[in-house]
From TrEMBL:
InterPro entries (UniProt xref): Luciferase-like_dom (IPR011251), Luciferase-like_sf (IPR036661), SsuD_RutA_monooxygenase (IPR050172)
All copies of domain Luciferase-like, residue ranges: 26-348
The organism's taxonomic lineage, starting at the top: Bacteria, Pseudomonadati, Pseudomonadota, Gammaproteobacteria, Pseudomonadales
Keyword terms: Flavoprotein, FMN, Monooxygenase, Oxidoreductase
Enzyme class: oxidoreductase
Enzyme Commission identifier(s): 1.-.-.-
Protein name: LLM class flavin-dependent oxidoreductase
Gene Ontology molecular function: any one: oxidoreductase activity
Family: Belongs to the SsuD family.
CDD domains: Alkanesulfonate_monoxygenase (cd01094)
Length: 379
């Protein structure tokens, strides 16, 4: 199959406009109960659609470039613990579809396990093209292959070996892109998918929707280098900022070098959880309170969901009480200082999460965004 056009081939595409920012900004929506922090400390954050719609509209008003939502397939009680962490959740694909009709500028990224259950490339090509049409080119796919063995079994499937998952996903997305691009019927016979006289209309507005991949393994990085516009990365070290900054540059260069090997460029995105208060001391007091109220049963439940993912191997269990790929804790000046350091390390964008989303997002918009503009990281 020939190279397919990307949204970045179109200067007026929503993705091209987002990438005009020196540092693009996203919000990692809390579509699951407990958000990103398995802590019983009181907060207003909730998983409901109305709450996430309000967050998305506020992020759009503040100039954020995208919102992101995760996908998980857990049993009753979620990860468990006293708080029943992630027991309730919205589907990312449907949530972003609904948000497409109430937003006008912000990119909407859905996470989807394309290898689970009955998904077929023709399904996704049609659904994705429809969402692209509704959103005017603002919908994107975070394609994941499923790293948790118990999730595969919940769909009646045996777990698929790590690298084999990426080989199957490669065939899947190549077929999807051919359907998005081809002006004629598509015939295809591969190792995993077969199509005869398959066709999709409408066609995407800007070549194809935005493609994202969250990965840290060699096979995943190679997949992202061939297909993705954005690589959602994790610190190979811990969530602690100094450790992350020590190990991120080499990891990010490896990812970008892999893309250059295919004649492409990718942007890297990381998920900090931000705890920002008037002073460093006050922010660390909040961090300590969240950790002290952490639910060990939820962490134990998380550990039981056996995974062969590479991305989180350097993270410490206790860091998960607060959450985030990395943690930015301090005054507005300290948070901006660390964001600048992440940019210098090679990060192109931030997918922000918070402990208490609505008030913390307001505080970020009021106190941190102006400093990012002064630093030349936002326009």
């Amino acid at each position: 199959m020939s190279r397919q056009p990307s949204p970045l081939d179109f200067p007026q595409s929503p993705l091209s406009r987002a990438f005009e920012q020196p540092l693009f900004l996203g919000l990692f929506l809390p579509v699951q109960s407990g958000g990103w922090s398995p802590s019983a400390l009181p907060r207003s954050t909730t998983w409901t659609f109305d709450y996430n719609r309000q967050l998305t509209l506020r992020a759009e008003e503040l100039g954020f470039d995208l919102v992101f939502a995760l996908a998980e397939w857990l049993g009753k009680g979620g990860y468990g613990g006293d708080i029943r962490y992630h027991d309730e959740s919205l589907d990312a694909f449907i949530t972003q579809a609904a948000l497409a009709s109430v937003t006008s500028r912000i990119l909407l990224i859905s996470t989807l396990h394309v290898l689970y259950g009955p998904w077929h490339p023709l399904h996704l090509a049609k659904f994705g093209a429809t969402l692209d049409h509704i959103s005017k080119g603002r919908w994107g796919l975070n394609l994941v292959t499923g790293h948790r063995h118990r999730e595969h079994r919940r769909f009646g499937q045996a777990p698929i070996e790590h690298d084999q998952r990426y080989r199957q996903a490669d065939e899947f997305i190549r077929v999807v892109q051919e359907l998005w691009h081809s002006p004629d019927n598509v015939d295809f016979s591969g190792d995993h998918y077969k199509l005869e006289e398959a066709y999709v209309s409408v066609k995407p507005s800007f070549g194809r929707p935005v493609l994202v991949n969250a990965t840290g393994s060699p096979a995943g990085i190679d997949f992202a280098a061939r297909h993705s516009d954005i690589v959602f990365t994790t610190s190979p070290g811990s969530a602690e900022i100094e450790n992350a900054l020590e190990k991120l540059p080499e990891h990010l260069q490896r990812t970008k070098h892999a893309a250059r090997g295919y004649g492409r460029q990718v942007r890297t995105l990381i998920n900090p959880l931000v705890i920002c208060r008037d002073s460093d001391a006050e922010a660390w007091e909040v961090h300590a309170a969240i950790t002290a109220a952490g639910d060990p049963g939820a962490l134990e439940g998380h550990a039981r969901e056996a995974s062969d993912a590479h991305a989180w191997r350097g993270h410490q269990p206790a860091e998960r009480y607060v959450g985030g790929n990395i943690q930015l804790v301090g005054s507005p000046e300290t948070v901006v200082r660390d964001i600048i350091r992440l940019k210098e390390a090679g990060i192109d964008g931030l997918q922000l999460s918070f402990f208490d989303f609505a008030p913390d997002l307001e505080q970020f918009g009021e106190r941190v965004l102006p400093l990012l503009r002064q630093a030349g990281l936002r326009r």
